[in-house]
Write a structure and sequence with these properties.
Length: about 475
């Protein structure tokens, strides 16, 4: 039985057919903030991310790059990890679904369970397969030229023998779980969306492909002529990473079910329908929540190489630093709706809210403290008691990172206003005692701001707390003007 004081959070496993872009960075930073917050509240927290490697599109991308698939995968997943490290992502595990020791046993065990429940059946199938989506599509999903509107390519006509997963029989149960909130889909608009899919009834899904047509993939247990459909094995990563299907399954016992799967709106159907269906069939508990965020655009348009509006998170980190990128994603993108980023907007908010707002406050307050206060104020902080303002905690617990960040910046502006109003740097000449008292209060407020920033901007939080403890202004501006 899972302990209440544990917390398991996941991101989607990303396809390593190209480097990660701003959208992937968003999902991961959002999850990292939630995970860090959970750790600060004293919960035993496990944060999983990784890469989805048994997909046909990866083999094609490797070919196009003139590289061997394994080398290509190592290179791209290496880039993923470098970006995560640059962004200060503190994951506990990075799962690679090509890992035969970590992932395969769980995927095989899942298959065996679905099969034992009588939910796997061989059928002959004819359909349209979009490699971009790694999914069968129907005519109504295509544009007037018969192309996939998301990928601009014609799907392949596939006629073959497949194993099917009898998802249709779970429609009602899944709907019940989502309606009752036992499986919570956040926000409400996404809950409505998945409920309307469920209302139409779910169709059975093709869950395998002939092995000779697939260069990668996990062989179907008991039938080596077939390989598992990539989404069947990909979704299972959330349990295989914890040891499901292996002997060393302590993490699985400790952390499953997931407290929250963080995903983008593009993969809601997989997580809100197929995954719960698989878990019900396998006799496993369902995740508690699915947090579905929107898409990030640039200047109101989808980021695309042709439009030249793609923003590379690695480049942005190089220019402004990870903390600034985390700031932007936390405060200027809603976790529940589509968001937007342009280089102009980034620079503008960087200068206004980091160079001026926060950076300026830190140097003003610490300059006064260094000069006029002889010892740093007595600040107590217990690690397991993340007692900060209720509004902030509620926002964090609702995963409303944007609101939590707004609350921090509201305090930053209030602190600025207080300095303007009380002018302790002048008051010190006429009423030293009062001035010192105000400066001490400002230092304590700065420390609280530093603590609130911990999950959002961990390095900045550390710098602020250290400055307060040393009673010293940081040598360099934390956020130099750009
Ligand atoms: O779908 N804005 O992987 P993927 C915000 N391997 N987020 C975005 C985004 C954008 N413009 N574009 C992508 C897959 N994302 C599967 C997942 S999980 C068992 C398997 C984010 O590499 C968002 O989280 O295509 C989206 O759901 C995910 O990247 C898709 O990543």
């Amino acid at each position: 039985m899972k302990d209440k004081n544990t917390f398991y959070i996941t991101t989607p496993i990303f396809y390593p057919n190209a480097n990660l872009h701003m959208g992937h960075a968003y999902t991961t930073v959002l999850s990292d903030i939630i995970s860090r917050y959970s750790k600060l509240t004293g919960k035993g927290t496990y944060f999983l991310t990784g890469s989805d490697e048994n997909a046909e599109k990866i083999v094609r991308a490797a070919k196009a790059a003139g590289k061997d698939t394994v080398d290509y995968l190592d290179e791209i997943t290496g880039n993923f990890k470098n970006l995560f490290s640059d962004l200060g992502i503190s994951y506990d595990q990075f799962i690679r679904t090509s890992d035969k020791e970590v992932h395969f046993p769980g995927a095989e065990e899942m298959w065996r369970r679905l099969s034992a429940s009588g939910d796997i059946e061989k059928r002959s199938y004819e359909g349209l397969y979009c490699v971009g989506h790694e999914s069968f599509v129907t005519e109504k999903d295509l544009d007037e030229d018969g192309k996939c509107p998301d990928h601009g390519t014609k799907p392949e006509v596939v006629k073959e023998e497949n194993y099917f997963f009898k998802l249709s029989k779970y429609t009602d149960k899944i709907r019940e779980k989502i309606e009752s909130g036992e499986l919570e889909v956040i926000p409400q608009s996404r809950k409505n969306e998945i409920l309307s899919v469920l209302k139409d009834g779910l169709e059975d899904v093709s869950f395998s492909r002939p092995a000779d047509k697939m260069s990668v993939g996990i062989p179907v247990p008991g039938d080596s002529t077939q390989k598992m459909y990539v989404w069947c094995d990909a979704l299972t990563n959330y349990v295989s990473a914890l040891g499901f299907g292996r002997e060393d399954d302590e993490l699985f016992k400790k952390f499953w079910p997931a407290d929250v799967h963080v995903i983008g709106k593009d993969i809601l159907r997989f997580h809100g329908a197929i995954w719960p269906g698989m878990l019900l069939s396998a006799g496993l508990p369902l995740p508690r929540k699915i947090l579905v965020h929107g898409f990030i655009k640039s200047g109101g348009k989808k980021m695309s190489k042709t439009l030249g509006n793609v923003i590379d998170p690695a480049e942005l980190v190089k220019e402004y630093g990870a903390e600034a990128v985390r700031y932007y994603l936390a405060r200027h993108i809603s976790p529940f709706e589509d968001g937007d980023i342009t280089l102009e907007k980034f620079k503008e908010v960087y200068n206004a809210n980091l160079a001026n707002g926060l950076g300026n406050l830190v140097s003003r307050v610490m300059k006064m403290a260094e000069k006029h206060v002889s010892e740093y104020p007595n600040i107590s902080e217990s690690a397991n008691n993340y007692e900060l303002s209720k509004g902030y905690r509620d926002a964090m617990e609702e995963y409303n990172i944007q609101k939590a960040s707004d609350i921090v910046w509201m305090r930053i502006s209030k602190a600025d206003e207080k300095i303007q109003e009380t002018q302790p740097f002048k008051l010190v000449k006429t009423d030293k005692e009062k001035a010192v008292q105000i400066i001490k209060e400002m230092v304590i407020e700065l420390y609280t701001i530093g603590r609130m920033l911990n999950p959002i901007m961990p390095e900045t939080s550390k710098i602020i707390k250290e400055a307060v403890k040393a009673n010293k202004k940081p040598d360099e501006p934390i956020f130099p003007r750009k």
